[in-house]
Amino acid sequence: MSGRIPFRVHPMLATLVHEPFHRPGWVYEEKYDGIRILAYKEGARVRLMSRNANDRTATYGDVAAAVRALPSQTLLLDGEIVAFDRRGVSRFQLLQQGQMRPAYAVFDCLYIDGRDLRREPLTTRRRALERALTDRDPLRLARRLAGDGLAAYRLAERRGLEGLIAKDAQAPYVEGRSGTWLKVKVRQEDEFVIGGFTAPGGARTRFGALLLGAYGGNGKLRYVGKVGTGFTAQSLDSLYRTFRPLIRETSPFADPPRGRGVTHLAPRLVAQVAFEEWTADWKLRQPAFLGLRDDKKPEEVILPGTPP
Fold first, then answer.
1. Residue 235 belongs to what H/E stretch?
2. Adjacent-strand bridge partners of 108
3. How far apart are CA 272 and CA 93, in angstroms?
4. 20 to 30 A Cα–Cα from 153, which one of 38, 208, 237, 265?
């Protein structure tokens, strides 16, 4: 048996749907609010790779060590690096701020001891995962919710989860966006491109609010609102240092907002933002900044409802 995994993969991605549902033969898992990670174990060598192929092994050394200690000689796991709050709910902001020890919530097994499982149904891959994984910190087996999709959604609501992932139990693992993995959100949270910032006011330093956007079907960046809450003095300083090399003369938005005191930025950064709801004209209500994401590309940030 070779000590190498003979391929590298791009992760399978869930398609957003706006209403909870139940389908026979589907399973319903907790949706985690973290950073997607593929873990490659090849003998003593472990690599933790993000969705856009950044090596995060050194960043999450405890997780890498735990994967290395698993008994399988070769192993490819798919999951999310998360930080749980005191109620056991994953929170992206806690992960960004380093307030809690990161865990690795694993929901799929694509390769184990020389066997490629990608074409196998999810039921087979889940059994392999349960045999391979030691479910103790910092490794966690992804939690299944109720067997009925509507009951699973109600449970996610009661627990305050970000949402749930519904999966066809007979489907193979397919790279890229898929209709056999569907996500339903409970808590409104999403990624947005940062296209500029406003001048600070009052006691605020560095900047006032971030101008946010998402790409429409025509490939142009549309303005969706600004976020001025969720920052600390430390994050204001850190973000401003990150912004300075990206300052430019013109707005990146196809429909730039009116107003004075705006500094434009090249659309290279992605922010995670919580919000109350979308307005009728596709603007964010009551947004709050949670952190930057370097595991997603700006062009992947698409306005909801935009055809793929």
1. helix 233-243
2. 78
3. 9
4. 38
Burial per residue of 118-156, b for 16 or more beta-carbon CB atoms within 10 angstroms, e otherwise: bebebeebbebbeebbeeeebbbbbeebeeebeebbebb
Host H or E run for residue 302: none
Q: Residue 127 has which token pair?
A: 């059994």
Locate 235 and state its tokens. Answer: 């994050």
For the CA atoms of the chain, what is the radius of gyration? 20
**pLDDT tier, 306 (very low <50, low <70, confident <90, very high otherwise):** low
CB 228 within 8 A of CB 288: no
pLDDT tens for each residue of 123-177 = 999 999 999 997 778 999 999 999 999 999 999 999 989 899 999 999 999 999 9
Is 57:46 a contact under the CB 8 Å cutoff?
yes
Strands 74-82 and 176-185, how do they pair?
Answer: unpaired
Q: Which two tokens stand for residue 124?
A: 């087979």
Question: What is the number of alpha carbons within 13 Å of residue 294 lying toward its C-beta?
Answer: 7
**Catalytic residues, which ones?**
31
Which tens digits make up the pLDDT trace of 19-54?
999 999 999 999 999 999 999 999 999 999 999 899
| CB distance 257 to 284 below 8 Å | no
Whether the model clears a pTM of 0.85, i.e. scores above it, the answer is no
Q: In whole angstroms, give the CA distance from residue 273 to residue 246.
A: 20
